[in-house]
Amino acid sequence: MKYGQYTAVAAALLLALPASARDVSETLDAAPDGRVKISNVSGSIDVRGWSRSAVEVTGELGDDVEDLILDRSGDTVRIKVKVPERSGRFTDASADLVIQVPERSAIEVAAVSADIEVRAVNGEQSLRAVSGDIDAEAFAEDIDVETVSGDIELRGDGAAAHAVLRSVSGDVSGERIAGELVATSVSGDLGIIDAALSRGDFETVNGDVTVRMTLLRDGRVDAETVNGDVNFEFDGDLSAEFDIDTFNGEIDNCFGPKARRTSEYAPGWELRFAHGGGDGRVRVKTLNGGVNICTD
Fold first, then answer.
1. pTM (two decimals)
2. Which of 214, 207, 290, 209 is nearest to 252 (CA)?
3. Is 123 contained in some domain?
4. Which three-class secondary structure state does DSSP give residue 14?
């Protein structure tokens, strides 16, 4: 083979090799308490709060990512990974991003197939994924988290806020959440510890509900499962009316009266009583599952 032929073959081989992922590093001035909107189809999104009035994006873009859009309109910064309208099966349109935002920012994160992690962001948060886990911290501001297929983990700081955690297929867990909490899963367990609640709503179709909480004065907590147990442990002073029903499961109560059967011919149990001054309310219903309530 002649030299020219060798050169042509080598060039063809180089063209056939996949290109390496592209590094990205961009910075944009931002309002200290503005809004940051982030969109990424696949990969990962890691958001970190810092003391600077700027947004910084670093990470890697897949071979087939068309562009990384970083722009600002007023107090809103937009970050978007632009991918081909029709991505083939073997294209690499993913992006792994680390995003620094002003710590008082409100953030909106949307992903299709990507994990989301948020740390040290003090503003409101809206986090959405179709297929991916979401791991976040919240500090006295409202947070709304939803994933179709993935787990959710939230850590609060004990300050009152409104938190909504929803997963279709995945577990939901949280700690030190205070104020109002809604946590639901179609197929997954709910596990909440060290909560201080004025309002709590917990619901699963196939999964257990386990909550260790302080029920605040005049607080209200509701739990409902189709196939799953409910376990409530109350810390501190407790003052509430209890209304508990199971269709196919027993009720275990470590304080107050014992449950009674709804019928001598049916498997259901019920328990209704007031504890303390009866200021708050605890309501539990299960179809196929038991209920356990206890105090520390």
1. 0.90
2. 290
3. no
4. helix
Residue 75 Rama label (left phi>0; alpha psi -120 to 50; beta): alpha
CA-to-CA dists, residue 8 to 2, 11, 186, angstroms: 10, 5, 58
Domain with 88, as residue range(s), is: 20-113
Per-residue pLDDT of the chain (296 residues; tens, 9 = 90+): 554 554 454 444 444 444 457 999 999 999 999 999 999 999 999 999 999 999 999 999 999 999 999 999 999 999 999 998 765 554 688 999 999 999 999 999 999 999 999 999 999 999 999 999 999 999 999 999 999 999 999 999 999 999 999 999 999 999 999 999 999 999 999 999 999 999 999 999 999 999 999 999 999 999 999 999 999 999 999 999 999 999 999 999 999 899 999 887 778 899 999 999 999 999 999 999 999 999 98
User: Do residues 52 and 193 share a domain?
Assistant: no
What is the rounded distance in angstroms from the CA atom of residue 296 to the CA atom of residue 274? 18
